[in-house]
Amino acid sequence: MINATAILTPYPANSMSNADKKSLAIKSITGEQTISAIANDYKVSRKFVNNQKQKILGAVNEAFDEKADGDKVLYQIPVTKNWLKQCVISFALDCRSSFRGIIKSMCNLFDFKFSLGSVCNIIQSVIPIAKNINENQDLSNIKLCAQDEMFQHNQPVLTGVDIPSLYCYLLSLNEQRDGDTWAIHLLDLQKQGFNPERVFADDGSGLRAGHQYVFPNTPCDADHFHISKDLMDLRRYFRNRLKSSISHRILMESKMNELADMARAMKQEKKVAQAKKEEIKFRYLSGSIDTLISWIEHDVFNMAGYNPDIRRELFDFIVAEFKKLEKIHKHRIRAIRVKLKNHRDLLLAFADVLNDKFAHIAKESSLTLETIWVMCELQRCKQSGDSYAIRSLPLQFQLGEQYDVVEDAVIAAMNTTEKTSSMVENLNSRISSYFFLRKEIGNDYLQLLQLYLNHSPFLRSDDPKRRKKSPTEILTNKPHDHWLELLGFKRFKRAA
After folding, report:
1. Would you call 421 helix, strand, or coil by DSSP?
2. Quick one: average pLDDT of 163-192?
């Protein structure tokens, strides 16, 4: 006869909750109790305890298995034609890929074949949208900008960028770079509200002629980057000439010492004397040029320094010294000297801008302009250094509680005063990577590139105001949609 009670009583393992099973398995892993003791406590078999233990160990191994993790499906993407078009445009702009590189990537990653014509058509299809956005952007906020010219297979590409935001307002391929070409582009920009307060540029004649025609009352200051590069090249050239003259003198002396014949030795001695004369000349030229360039870089062009009158006086002295050196050796020195002389006022225009800002600070703080310039000169010293501590004592005694306020105002004025077109050079370096893979590039593609550069957030920047913001967002102080969404696409987003 079958016991009814035994039939109705469930086996403990079947009625055990998942929490109890987990607790049981953890105890078996940690070794707090033996398998037999755990089985007795929970009224289950030792086989059941071992099965739970293996389940937990299997789950742990799976969690840390690299192969299993790599094959795990994270999320599904609905692949549509529009999504593939986004990939093509993203590869072209985000990855700077060539069109044939895009074709290979699409085939390798998505098993989808594109023809070269299809890739071109996809790029061309969004260009009118990009052009419309570029031409309707309000440029009235641009006050400080830089302009330049770069070349793509001997064709000039005119570029312009807003210095604070790095917004690219001009990116155009042209057959010429004369004054008329620049003037036409600047007049078109003027219709978008472009009216800068100051412009920085090199000494390109066409650029300056076009600017003078459209903005006759707007200063176009000379860029310090190019003249500083020319000065560094000049210094390096004469340093190398000095080294060459020393090597030549040593060679002549060694040849003379090897000669046993007196007649030939006397002839060689004349060559040695001439080599020594050349060495003395280039030692003097190299040393003098090093000193003059050091003065012009650290005492004239340095933002922290003297007032405009002293800078001009020192600038004229340096130019006069270059003229003296020019009489000894005209090559290269004359070209630099003439360029410095002709561009003196443009190169020192930043000092006049500083002077106006300092005059305003002096008026607000009831101090003399000379005192503000002394504060500016003090900024040449590191604030954590002994020189700063010693040289700041007279100013601290004179200004008292005003000292920190005045110093902060002077530093702010210096930080907001520009003297180079380095931002447009930065833009040119970013653009050049897009030109590298293409022999021919038209204005249509540049319109798309311009929109991409202006609406892509900076991944990193020394300026915290620029981090994770696009140039357009910085310029307008307003958020905008992703650049792919501006082109009419709907981006894929994972479910929360």
Report:
1. coil
2. 94
Determine how β-strand 168-173 pairs with β-strand 155-162. Answer: antiparallel
Residue 241 CB partners (closer than 8 Å, separation 6+): 282, 285, 286
| pTM of the predicted structure, to 2 decimals | 0.77
Separation CA 489–CA 82 (nearest Å): 7
Looking at every residue in the chain, the average pLDDT score rounds to 89
Return contacts of 452-457, CB within 8 angstroms, 24+ apart.
452/93, 452/130, 452/483, 453/168, 453/171, 453/427, 454/134, 454/137, 454/167, 454/168, 455/480, 455/482, 455/483, 455/486, 456/483
Phi, psi of 9 (to 5 degrees): -80, 120
Spell out a b/e string for 100-135, using b for 16 or more CB atoms within 10 Å of the CB, else e.
eebbebbeeeeeeebeeebbeebbeebbeebbebbe
Radius of gyration for the alpha carbons in the chain, expressed in angstroms and rounded: 36
What is the Cα–Cα distance from 346 to 337, expressed in whole angstroms?
Answer: 15
**Among candidate residues 130, 128, 83, the one with its CA nearest the CA of residue 472:** 130
Residue 442 and residue 124: Cα distance in Å, rounded?
Answer: 11
